[in-house]
Specification:
This protein is mainly alpha-helical. The chain has helices at residues 6-36, 54-63, 70-79, 97-106, 122-130, 168-185, 198-211, 218-230, 238-245, 286-293, 317-336, and strands at 44-48, 87-91, 111-115, 159-163, 302-305, 311-314. The strands form three sheets. Strands 1-2 form a two-stranded antiparallel ribbon. Strands 3-4 form a two-stranded antiparallel sheet. Strands 5-6 form a two-stranded antiparallel ribbon. Helix 8 crosses helix 10 (286-293). The N and C termini lie far apart (104 Å). Mean pLDDT is 90; it is low at 23-35.
Length: 337
């Protein structure tokens, strides 16, 4: 058996260290070239049009100084699958060709969130969406599809995470389908007397939604209206009058609701007509729906604002008048400030 001398062993170790060092240099060089070698000094936004070829995007990125090497970028695309996906992309500062190629091939498109507030009407939601620059297209259409004929109560208020460049109609359809899913989750619920169907549940929930923003208070407000319906007492809900006055907008836009308005002849005016209005007056969240399906067990028939964002509840008109007088005093003090 031939033994390795100390001098030979030292030479082997020296060569091993040298090869490892060279390997580390090569690995770092490759990593630098593909990940750190970048002309991007600040975040940049790019758009890949539908049908754009890899060659077209490579030239575009090179001409706009987003990549330093067309060859390296093209190679990175090939190594990541070879195809790119259309969309809008937020490229971070210092991103190399491999990072950019990975984003484009995996479709890591820029996203945004859109919150549809609870209690908004369809008209308010459409106005809001038209003011969001990251969305595209109109909010109205004439085709015979559900999203072209939306009614209040058919949209679920929520925060939606979507790709930038999403069409406004697509977002409305997403919110419409979400409400259909919500309805299914309540399909086995027992409707409280005297509510007969889902439309009546949503209609009362929309009134509750407009009357109070407090989830804990909603079952009590719902109980007031349930109690009134059960004794055939008019609901006398101000939001229903506002809905009628504003032709479904649901917002007086700073104008006061006057006593004369309560006399208007409109089926949504619950001061003039008994029972629920024909349909919802807003789009509602889960808490308002739950409040109607499981109202508090009370004997309350009246409520008025307490000046702190909530309400005072009463079983009879005399007690309600006292609470109303306190509310008038609070409003007077607020107006004097």
């Amino acid at each position: 058996m031939k033994f390795i001398t100390k001098r030979q062993w030292k030479r082997i170790k020296d060569w091993t260290k040298f090869i490892l060092a060279i390997g580390c240099v090569i690995v770092f060089a490759v990593f630098f070239v593909f990940n750190l070698w970048s002309p991007i000094k600040k975040p940049v936004n790019i758009v890949v049009p539908r049908g754009a070829s890899v060659a077209r995007m490579t030239n575009h990125l090179y001409k706009n100084n987003i990549i330093k090497s067309k060859e390296l970028f093209y190679f990175s695309i090939r190594m990541n699958g070879g195809t790119i996906q259309a969309g809008e992309y937020d490229i971070p500062r210092g991103a190399g060709v491999w990072t950019i190629a990975s984003m484009l091939t995996k479709g890591q498109i820029a996203t945004t969130t859109v919150t549809i507030p609870e209690g908004y009407t369809v008209k308010q939601i459409k106005m809001m969406l038209m003011n969001i620059p990251y969305l595209v297209g109109d909010v109205d259409c004439e085709e015979s599809i559900p999203v072209c004929d939306l009614h209040d109560g058919e949209i679920f208020p929520d925060t939606y995470r979507i790709a930038r460049g999403t069409s406004r109609l697509a977002l409305l359809e997403l919110a419409r389908k979400k409400m259909m899913d919500v309805k299914q989750s309540f399909d086995n619920a027992r409707y409280p007397v005297p509510l007969k169907d889902w439309n009546e549940v949503l209609t009362l929930a929309s009134i509750v939604q407009k009357e109070t923003p407090r989830a804990k208070e909603m079952p009590i407000v719902a109980s007031v209206y349930i109690n009134r319906l059960n004794i055939n007492m008019r609901l006398q809900a101000d939001p229903t009058v506002v809905y009628a006055l504003t032709d479904g907008l649901g917002d007086m836009q700073g104008e006061p609701l006057l006593s004369g308005h309560l006399k208007m002849d409109n089926p949504y005016n619950t001061y003039r007509y008994n029972g629920l209005p024909p349909a919802p007056i807003a789009n509602v969240g889960r808490e308002a729906i739950r409040a109607v399906l499981k109202p508090a067990h009370t004997k309350y028939l009246f409520f008025v604002a307490d000046g702190r964002g909530g309400h005072r509840f009463s079983k009879d008109y005399g007690e309600h008048q006292k609470h109303h007088e306190k509310w008038r005093e609070i409003k007077k003090k607020l107006s004097e400030q």
